[in-house]
Amino acid sequence: xxxxxxxxxxxxxxxxxxxxxxxTVTYGSVGLxxxxxxxxxxxxxxxxxxxxGRFAEPRVEQVGENEYEAYVVASxxxxxxxxxxxxxxxxxxxxVTSADVIHGFSVxxxxxxxxxxxxxxxxxxxxxxxxxxxxxxxxxxxxxGHHTMEGQLIVLPEDEYEPxxxx
Length: 167
Hints:
Blueprint: H1 5-31, E1 59-64, E2 67-75, E3 78-80, E4 84-87, E5 90-98, E6 103-107, E7 113-116, E8 122-128, E9 132-137, E10 150-156
Parallel strand pairs: 2-5, 4-10
Antiparallel strand pairs: 1-2, 2-3, 5-8, 6-7, 6-9, 9-10
Protein backbone atom coordinates (compact mmCIF):
# COMPACT_ATOMS: atom_id res chain seq x y z
CA UNK A 1 0.00 0.00 0.00
CA UNK A 2 1.38 3.35 -1.02
CA UNK A 3 0.61 6.50 1.00
CA UNK A 4 0.58 9.70 -0.97
CA UNK A 5 3.04 12.45 0.10
CA UNK A 6 0.23 14.87 0.97
CA UNK A 7 -1.43 12.24 3.16
CA UNK A 8 1.85 11.74 5.02
CA UNK A 9 2.09 15.50 5.59
CA UNK A 10 -1.48 15.64 6.93
CA UNK A 11 -0.83 12.67 9.25
CA UNK A 12 2.37 14.22 10.59
CA UNK A 13 0.63 17.59 10.99
CA UNK A 14 -2.30 16.01 12.86
CA UNK A 15 0.06 14.12 15.18
CA UNK A 16 2.04 17.30 15.90
CA UNK A 17 -1.20 19.13 16.74
CA UNK A 18 -2.39 16.32 19.01
CA UNK A 19 0.92 16.24 20.89
CA UNK A 20 0.86 20.06 21.08
CA UNK A 21 -2.67 20.09 22.54
CA UNK A 22 -1.78 17.45 25.12
CA UNK A 23 1.38 19.37 26.10
CA THR A 24 -0.60 22.63 26.39
CA VAL A 25 -3.29 21.09 28.60
CA THR A 26 -0.68 19.38 30.76
CA TYR A 27 1.30 22.60 31.20
CA GLY A 28 -1.86 24.58 31.94
CA SER A 29 -3.04 22.17 34.61
CA VAL A 30 0.28 21.24 36.24
CA GLY A 31 3.04 23.61 35.18
CA LEU A 32 1.42 26.87 36.29
CA UNK A 33 0.81 25.70 39.85
CA UNK A 34 -2.93 26.30 39.65
CA UNK A 35 -4.86 24.13 42.05
CA UNK A 36 -8.53 23.34 42.16
CA UNK A 37 -10.61 24.27 45.17
CA UNK A 38 -11.17 21.24 47.35
CA UNK A 39 -12.87 20.49 50.63
CA UNK A 40 -9.81 21.37 52.73
CA UNK A 41 -11.74 24.35 54.11
CA UNK A 42 -14.07 21.99 55.94
CA UNK A 43 -17.81 21.77 56.26
CA UNK A 44 -20.47 23.25 58.50
CA UNK A 45 -24.22 23.09 58.82
CA UNK A 46 -25.80 25.67 56.50
CA UNK A 47 -28.42 26.29 59.19
CA UNK A 48 -25.76 27.10 61.76
CA UNK A 49 -23.50 29.57 59.95
CA UNK A 50 -24.32 32.21 62.58
CA UNK A 51 -23.34 29.76 65.35
CA UNK A 52 -19.97 28.80 63.84
CA GLY A 53 -17.10 30.66 65.50
CA ARG A 54 -15.42 31.35 62.17
CA PHE A 55 -18.44 32.84 60.42
CA ALA A 56 -20.64 34.21 63.23
CA GLU A 57 -18.87 37.52 62.76
CA PRO A 58 -17.42 37.77 59.21
CA ARG A 59 -14.06 39.50 59.46
CA VAL A 60 -10.40 39.74 58.51
CA GLU A 61 -7.91 38.74 61.17
CA GLN A 62 -4.14 38.70 61.29
CA VAL A 63 -2.68 35.23 61.88
CA GLY A 64 1.02 35.92 61.29
CA GLU A 65 3.44 38.47 59.97
CA ASN A 66 1.86 39.68 56.72
CA GLU A 67 -0.63 36.77 56.87
CA TYR A 68 -4.36 37.28 57.18
CA GLU A 69 -7.52 35.18 57.12
CA ALA A 70 -10.79 36.55 55.74
CA TYR A 71 -14.01 34.83 56.78
CA VAL A 72 -16.64 35.67 54.18
CA VAL A 73 -20.32 34.77 54.18
CA ALA A 74 -22.36 35.08 51.01
CA SER A 75 -26.11 35.36 51.44
CA UNK A 76 -28.94 36.80 49.41
CA UNK A 77 -27.86 39.38 48.18
CA UNK A 78 -24.75 40.53 50.03
CA UNK A 79 -21.21 39.58 50.96
CA UNK A 80 -20.17 40.00 54.57
CA UNK A 81 -17.97 41.76 55.49
CA UNK A 82 -18.29 44.53 52.95
CA UNK A 83 -15.88 46.06 52.23
CA UNK A 84 -13.12 43.57 52.92
CA UNK A 85 -9.95 45.48 53.81
CA UNK A 86 -6.46 43.94 53.76
CA UNK A 87 -2.97 45.47 53.70
CA UNK A 88 -0.68 45.45 50.68
CA UNK A 89 2.29 43.04 50.70
CA UNK A 90 0.26 40.40 52.49
CA UNK A 91 -0.99 36.87 51.97
CA UNK A 92 -4.72 36.45 52.52
CA UNK A 93 -6.53 33.15 52.92
CA UNK A 94 -10.22 33.48 52.16
CA UNK A 95 -12.67 31.10 53.82
CA VAL A 96 -15.95 31.47 51.96
CA THR A 97 -19.32 29.86 52.67
CA SER A 98 -22.97 30.50 52.00
CA ALA A 99 -25.82 30.86 54.44
CA ASP A 100 -28.64 30.07 52.03
CA VAL A 101 -28.13 29.10 48.37
CA ILE A 102 -25.20 28.62 46.00
CA HIS A 103 -23.39 31.87 45.29
CA GLY A 104 -20.26 32.82 43.40
CA PHE A 105 -17.30 34.65 44.92
CA SER A 106 -15.12 36.36 42.35
CA VAL A 107 -12.59 39.14 42.89
CA UNK A 108 -12.64 41.02 39.59
CA UNK A 109 -9.22 41.45 38.01
CA UNK A 110 -7.64 38.53 39.89
CA UNK A 111 -7.77 34.75 39.65
CA UNK A 112 -9.83 34.51 42.86
CA UNK A 113 -12.97 32.68 41.82
CA UNK A 114 -14.96 30.02 43.67
CA UNK A 115 -18.45 28.89 44.46
CA UNK A 116 -19.92 29.51 47.92
CA UNK A 117 -21.94 26.40 48.66
CA UNK A 118 -24.14 25.96 51.75
CA UNK A 119 -22.49 23.44 54.06
CA UNK A 120 -19.04 23.76 52.51
CA UNK A 121 -16.14 26.12 53.14
CA UNK A 122 -14.03 27.13 50.14
CA UNK A 123 -10.41 28.01 50.96
CA UNK A 124 -8.33 30.24 48.66
CA UNK A 125 -4.95 31.82 49.35
CA UNK A 126 -3.86 34.94 47.46
CA UNK A 127 -1.00 37.42 47.67
CA UNK A 128 -1.76 41.13 47.34
CA UNK A 129 1.36 43.18 46.61
CA UNK A 130 0.06 46.60 45.62
CA UNK A 131 -2.70 48.83 47.00
CA UNK A 132 -5.81 48.57 44.83
CA UNK A 133 -9.57 48.31 44.89
CA UNK A 134 -11.33 45.27 43.51
CA UNK A 135 -14.96 44.49 42.96
CA UNK A 136 -16.57 41.35 44.35
CA UNK A 137 -19.31 39.76 42.30
CA UNK A 138 -21.58 36.77 42.55
CA UNK A 139 -21.32 34.77 39.34
CA UNK A 140 -23.87 32.08 40.22
CA UNK A 141 -27.54 32.93 39.83
CA UNK A 142 -28.89 33.12 43.37
CA UNK A 143 -32.32 34.70 43.03
CA UNK A 144 -34.20 37.79 41.96
CA GLY A 145 -31.62 40.21 43.42
CA HIS A 146 -28.60 38.41 41.97
CA HIS A 147 -27.72 41.32 39.69
CA THR A 148 -27.25 43.58 42.75
CA MET A 149 -24.97 41.20 44.66
CA GLU A 150 -21.62 42.89 44.73
CA GLY A 151 -19.02 43.98 47.24
CA GLN A 152 -15.58 45.49 47.46
CA LEU A 153 -12.08 44.31 48.39
CA ILE A 154 -9.75 47.15 49.31
CA VAL A 155 -6.00 46.54 49.49
CA LEU A 156 -4.67 49.43 51.56
CA PRO A 157 -1.09 50.66 51.85
CA GLU A 158 0.53 48.97 54.86
CA ASP A 159 0.80 52.22 56.85
CA GLU A 160 -2.92 52.97 56.36
CA TYR A 161 -4.25 49.55 57.31
CA GLU A 162 -5.95 49.23 60.69
CA PRO A 163 -6.69 45.68 61.87
CA UNK A 164 -10.39 45.16 62.53
CA UNK A 165 -11.26 48.16 60.38
CA UNK A 166 -13.93 46.22 58.49
CA UNK A 167 -15.56 44.19 61.24
